[in-house]
Amino acid sequence: MHGMNTFSRRTLAKAALLGTVSTALAASPASASETAPVPPAPAGAPDGFVPVLPAPTGPYPVGTVRRAFTDPSRTDPWDPALGLRQVVVDVVYPARSVRGFRRVPQLTPGEARVFAELAFPVRGLPAAGVDWGGALTHAHAGAPPLPGRRPVVLYTPGGGDARTLGTGLAADLASHGAVVVLVDHPGEASQVELPDGTVRETVLYGPPDPATFRTMVETRVADLRLVLDRPGALPPGLVPDPARVLACGHSAGGTAAALLAARDPRVRAVANLEGYLDLEPWPGRRPLLLMRTDGFEGAERIERSWAGLRARRRTLRAANHWVFTDHAAVVPQLHAAGLVTGAVRDGLVGPGDAAATAAAVGRGLRDFLAALPTGPARRPGPAQ
C-alpha cells in the first residue's frame, strides 16, 4: 500500500464511504436554469498517462452544454449552510456539426485534483502518474444541435460517483440520436465543480446507515424531478419525445431511477444497471431493463430484489460493477501500462474484455430505447 501516507485522514474517511456506497447500494417548479461554464481546454498538461475514452459508434457527432439549476423549494440536505439545493448537469446531444467546437475534458482541473486524491485509497487506482484532467470526452462544447424529436435519458451515477463517469455512455447514446442528461448530486458525489468555479467535495463519512441511504436516494429523486421540471435545459431545436423519457442509473442510481419512475408519470421506462430494488416495491407499470455483472459481490441481494419482476434482463459475464462506467475503458489501459494490478482491474471491471462488455451495455440501452413506443408527432416549437 505504498503512497498511503500521502493522503490525509479526511481523504481516507471519504474513501471509506465512497467505496462502500458504490458497492453496497445500490415538486415545486424550480428557478430558471443558468448555463454553467464548460471545463477549460487542457493547457500545459502535467506529465502522466492520459486515459482515452472510446469513440461513439453512431452516425452523428456529439455536442454538449453544461447547466446548473437551483431548487427554491429545498435546502441542501448535506450542508444546509449552503442554502438552496443546486444541481449541475451535462446535456449531451446529437450535433448538426462540430467543426470549430472543441472537445470537452472529462474533468475540470479542480475536479481532476480531487479525483486524483481519492483514486488510490478508494479503488486502488494510481496515486500518481495519471493526468486525470487530460482525458477528453467526444462531446463538443456548444456545438449546434441536430434538430428533431428525441428520446431523453436521465442518467444518475453510482453512489459516491460523479456524473463524469458516464460520459462515454452518454456520448455513444447521443451519437445514435438520443439526448442524455448526466445529473450530478453535489454533497454526495466525490467532486462537482459549481458555476462559480468552486469544487464541492463529498461531505459524507463512513458507511451509510439506512437513514443516510434513504436521504441519498430521496435527494437523487428530487434532483431528477428538478431537471424534468426544466424543459428549457435542452438546446433550441431539440424536442423531447414525452413517450420516450428513460431514467437510467448505475448502482444507487438504479435504485433512484426506479423510485423516480414509480412516482413521476413523465418517466416512461427505467434502465437499472446493477442497482438494488428492495428499498420499495416496484409497481411494475413501466418497461424495465435490468443489467448486472457476474462478478458483483452483491449479486445474491440483487437477484433477491429483482425476483419476480417483469423486465428485460442481461447478465454480463467475466465483468464487475464499474464496467457500466468509463472505468471500463480506462482501467484496462492503466493495467496495460503497468499502473494498476490485475486484481484491481478484476475488482473494478472484471477479467473479461471490458471494452466489449461496455459496448454491449450501450447496445442494450439503445435496443431498449428503440423498443419504446414513440409518442404522437407534433410540430417542434421554440425552446421553453
From TrEMBL:
InterPro entries for this protein: AB_hydrolase_fold (IPR029058), TAT_signal (IPR006311)
GO molecular function, one term: 1-alkyl-2-acetylglycerophosphocholine esterase activity
PANTHER family: PLATELET-ACTIVATING FACTOR ACETYLHYDROLASE
GO biological process: lipid catabolic process
Record key words, sorted: Hydrolase, Lipid degradation, Lipid metabolism, Signal
Signal peptide: 1-26
Protein name per Swiss-Prot or TrEMBL: Platelet-activating factor acetylhydrolase
Naturally occurring in which organism (per UniProt): Streptomyces termitum
UniProt keyword annotation of Signal present: yes
